[in-house]
Design a protein that fits this description.
This protein has 355 residues and is of the alpha/beta class. The chain folds into two domains: 199 residues, Rossmann fold (3-Layer(aba) Sandwich), CATH 3.40.50; 137 residues, Glycogen Phosphorylase B (Rossmann fold, 3-Layer(aba) Sandwich), CATH 3.40.50.2000. Helices cover 37% and strands 17% of the residues. It has 15 helices and 14 strands. The protein has a seven-stranded parallel beta sheet with strand order 3-2-1-4-5-6-7, sandwiched between helices. Helix 11 packs parallel to helix 13. It is globular and about 65 Å long. The termini are far apart.
Length: 355
């Protein structure tokens, strides 16, 4: 028996990729043969290095699309490689984490194939105007508005919102066998939109995450503030570099800010370069390797090996997370417990909150 695990972009070590790789592994343990579908090319063997999950033996279908700067638009076609898999493997289950599978619905019903949708965040609320009153529409939500209301991305988002309705299913509870989500917070948002409760299935920690039984005291740690997550605007590194770091290094000159993230796409590379420019514009000394840290205020590191990342977390005094409306945040879950104290910054509320 085959089970299709459908994800639009497998070629990065992000939270969504961890979830889908874990689902594939779980399906294999349950006796199914996982079939991975993707719009872009990817290397399954990397998952063992990234997460400690071996998906290299699973067959996969890739459309070979390389438009990595158009991640939202790629989601619109997530159904297409699934359709290929339906012909080639006749699966019993489809597990998908994008809502844009309307072209598949009639086939799945006719063939009696079970479909499970995993919702990281309901894109319906971001791109369907009928949900604008809930406050998450792309022109209303704080993060989305910051990114998508300025030209040319305003055109990018407007066109996507028009195309979204053509490919997205309406109510997931009416077409899916089960609807899953990543947290109780996201579940509450889904309930507001569709008036039904999804099943909460928290993303797992990667199997290769070390378990810390003891940690250094605060005084034993170095005056490092560390941030972890792929280089993407929603992580709001730019906001931290503009509003927090200049004040921090002025008040605590010995403090160092370390940002560690993946940069596997042209969009993330562009954002990384943007962060470099912001750092210099704000008079910050910036480096790209941990060996530079004694002479800089900020270190922007790309694709850091997990062992080195864990070491830096264990040495640091503060873990900083600045994403608005974080619906789960694997980068937050992984360092805790035993790494370093958390520091959340909410730009809508004066001050900071320690956890």
């Amino acid at each position: 028996m085959h089970a299709v695990i459908a994800h639009h972009f497998w070629d990065r070590p992000g939270g969504g990729e961890l979830v889908m790789a874990s689902i594939a592994h779980a399906m294999a343990r349950a006796g199914y043969q996982p079939v991975l579908t993707s719009l872009s090319d990817f290397e399954p063997r990397k998952y063992l290095e990234w997460f400690g999950i071996d998906i290299s033996s699973y067959p996969y279908i890739s459309m070979g699309i390389r438009l990595r700067s158009f991640g939202l638009y790629m989601r619109l076609l997530v159904w297409y490689p699934v359709k290929v898999a339906l012909r080639r493997y006749s699966p019993r289950i489809i597990f998908i984490d994008s809502p844009t599978y309307k072209p598949l619905v009639s086939d799945l019903r006719r063939k009696g194939i079970k479909l499970i949708e995993y919702i990281h965040f309901p894109l319906d609320l971001s791109f369907r105007r009928k949900y604008v009153s809930l406050g998450y529409y792309y022109t209303e939500d704080q993060y989305m508005a910051e990114r998508y209301t300025r030209f040319p991305l305003s055109i990018y988002a407007w066109l996507y919102s028009k195309l979204f309705d053509k490919f997205a299913r309406e109510n997931p509870f009416q077409v899916s066998t089960a609807v899953l989500t990543n947290s109780r917070w996201t579940a509450s948002i889904i309930k507001m939109a569709f008036n039904e409760d999804p099943i909460v299935l928290n993303p797992p920690l990667p199997p290769n995450s070390p378990i810390t039984t003891s940690s250094r005291s605060f005084d034993e740690r170095k005056p490092y503030v560390v941030m972890v997550g792929r280089y993407a605007e929603e992580k709001r590194y730019h906001w931290v570099l503009e509003n927090t770091v200049p004040k921090l290094v002025k008040e605590i000159p010995q403090a160092k800010v370390i940002i560690m993230g993946s940069a596997g796409t042209s969009t993330s590379e562009s954002y990384y370069n943007h962060l470099m420019r912001i750092s210099l514009k704000n008079g910050l000394r910036v480096g790209t390797e941990i060996s530079h840290i004694s002479n800089v205020d900020v270190v922007l590191m790309k694709n850091v090996p997990r062992q080195e990342m864990v070491k830096l977390l264990d040495e640091s005094r503060v873990f900083l997370h600045a994403t608005v409306n974080e619906h789960w945040g694997i980068a937050v879950a992984e360092p805790w417990p035993g790494a370093c104290p958390w520091l959340f910054i909410n730009p809508a509320v004066p001050g900071v909150t320690w956890q």
